[in-house]
Amino acid sequence: MIPIQHGRVSLALHPLREGAGRPLLCLHAVGGSARDFRDAAQRWPGPAFGLDFSGHGDSQPLRGGGYFPENLAGDADAALARIGPALLLGAGIGAYVALLLAGARPDAVAGALLLPGAGLEGGGAAPDPASNTLARWTDFAAPPPGCDPAVRRLERDIRPPEYAEAFARAARGLLLAEGDFPQPPWWQAIRSSGAASPAPGDLEAGLARLATFPIR
Amino acid sequence: MTEPQHPGAVAPERSRFFLSDGVRLRVDEWGDPSAPPLVLLHGAFDHGRGFDLLAPLLASRFHVQALTSRGHGDSEWVDSYAWWSDVCDVVNLLRSLGRPVQLVGHSRGGGQATDAALWAPELVRQLVNIDGFGPPPEGFAPPGVPLDRRPPPPRFRDHLDRRRRSSGRSWRPYPSLEDLVERRREQNPRLSREWLRYFLFHGAREVEGGWIWKTDPEFAGGFGPWKPEWIGASWKGLRMPMLAMVGTEPDTWRLDDAVASERLANVPQLARAAVPGAGHFVHMERPRETADALLGFLAP
Known about the structure:
The structure holds two protein chains of two kinds. In chain A, 29% of the residues lie in helices and 19% in strands. Chain A has helices spanning 38-41, 69-83, 93-104, 134-138, 161-170, 185-192, 203-210; strands spanning 2-6, 9-17, 24-27, 48-52, 86-91, 109-115, 174-176, 197-198. Chain A is an alpha/beta fold. Chain B is α/β, with parallel strands linked by helices. Chain B has helices spanning 55-58, 83-96, 108-119, 152-166, 177-187, 193-203, 257-264, 282-285, 287-297; strands at 14-20, 23-30, 37-41, 63-67, 101-106, 124-130, 204-207, 210-213, 242-247, 270-275. In chain B, β5 (101-106), α3 (108-119) and β6 form a beta-alpha-beta unit. In chain B, α2 crosses α3 (108-119) and α5 (177-187) packs across α6 (193-203). The longest helix of chain B is centred in the middle third of the chain and has 15 residues, at 152-166. Chain B is globular and about 50 Å long. The relative contact order of chain B is 0.15. The mean pLDDT of chain B is 94.
């Protein structure tokens, strides 16, 4: 495990596969951890790393519980600062974080493969006054095992489609998993904008396609 | 350095710490604890002692309690700041008081008071928002800081660059309290040096090499999607009377009247008050007039 720092929080970056070549950084879903990618990492042709987001796995929780996607993107950016230019594999909230990072740092992120998982949806495309309630932010029923219960806030933040689309257009390459899962408005927007392509076939084929994206 | 004095400023009669989601928050109190509770919320980069002028003028009728928000003043720092964390803190405080309150907030605290009133209407009898109606559609334009009109991705890249540089950073000490006063005067030229000396004494601490802000340097480091049209729409759901208070003087941080009115048109039970001679910091610039307007609006 490689300890890295984001702000005052210590995070765990796990080497998942040794090797030479272009690194893969894996970003897990809400309630997950880097371990979720142990098998996937073996199908990558180069070195692979998995990050435990704050509040998850071996990383510290956020004092005060201020979890939101852009903060997790800062976690992932701290990992990127450590391993250098990389490709991203993200599931659920990790997919949304991968989109944000790929759009913000096209110089360091050659591409990303986005998969479904917990936290993919977020809290909708715009604030809904009727559901903008205290319970929205404090109901931590059934917290994911081994996690800070407040990470459930990562299922409630607002993700406007045009905000996601701006990041998709700024990214160098995005692959979206196909399949039978609920596609939130932000996912549909980047899919229909042409800024992202459908990933071919299964995970193995998706990773093989991702591996062809050139790093600058 | 001895504590500065200021005419009309009354230090809290009692102070305590309140635990919200594990975070220690300072609450300053004035008035009879059996009187009806009135809660005050300050603005960004301020702290509860900014109410030392207003609170004593309300304390004859109310049990006044000023909450200092996380990362500010003597309240604890956290690892990540978000708007709704503060709103949760407010609601947690209101819940702990055991009876519905009169809730008053200034600037950012006014916006958060309004959200708290939406989230927990059963805990708020009446709401007062002092010039906390959100930023202008194009954002606030403080002196010398050009508006950033770029799309979100490059702005987020800059934000991430700052996060990388800021890990573990602390404030640069100013040589003296007077230097902090002058720094703050650049942002708020309407506030007198005498008042700022009093106010900043409690918002800064003396360290080796000078004075530093108590505010967490990581505060205001957030980034996320936001649209001006999101502000105001939810106010249709306010179930209690709301007083919207502004000053009459131009101020960088004062929202344009037309924009404020458009947003406030959503409030079902709206009263308005304008305090002559005040800019954005209405309760600091004109505490007596602010108190009179509040006491006229607030039910016994």
